[in-house]
Write a structure and sequence with these properties.
The chain is built from 2 helices and 6 strands. It has helices spanning 27-32, 76-84; strands at residues 3-5, 8-10, 15-16, 37-38, 56-59, 64-67. The two termini are 18 Å apart.
Length: 101
């Protein structure tokens, strides 16, 4: 399943896109589950609760979803502190097996 995208070669192209892990909580479990990359975000400078619920709507007939999450997250300081606690050997840097062209 290897793919090269924007000059980066991914041995396994499966990953977690930004927006799902707004508080940097799934970075290391995601890597342990076989994901080759995990992006964190969306993060704001200060914590904020997001929009009132419900904030995610499914439009079945249109085969669509409306997202009105409102950037709910714990803020940049909380995310930075969580990332500082990363396990040894998990730097968040590019994997040496990935090659850029």
């Amino acid at each position: 399943m290897q793919q090269t995208v924007f000059g980066l070669t991914f041995i396994n192209p499966l990953g977690l896109a930004a927006g799902f892990d707004k508080n940097a909580e799934a970075v290391y479990p995601g890597a342990g589950a076989g994901l080759r990359f995990v992006e964190v975000g969306t993060v704001t400078p200060l914590p904020q609760p997001g929009n009132p619920k419900p904030r995610l709507f499914r439009l079945t007939r249109d085969r669509a979803v409306i997202n009105r999450m409102g950037f709910n997250n714990e803020g940049a300081a909380a995310m930075a502190a969580r990332l500082q606690q990363r396990p040894q050997g998990r730097t968040g840097r590019r994997n040496p097996r990935h090659q850029s062209r």
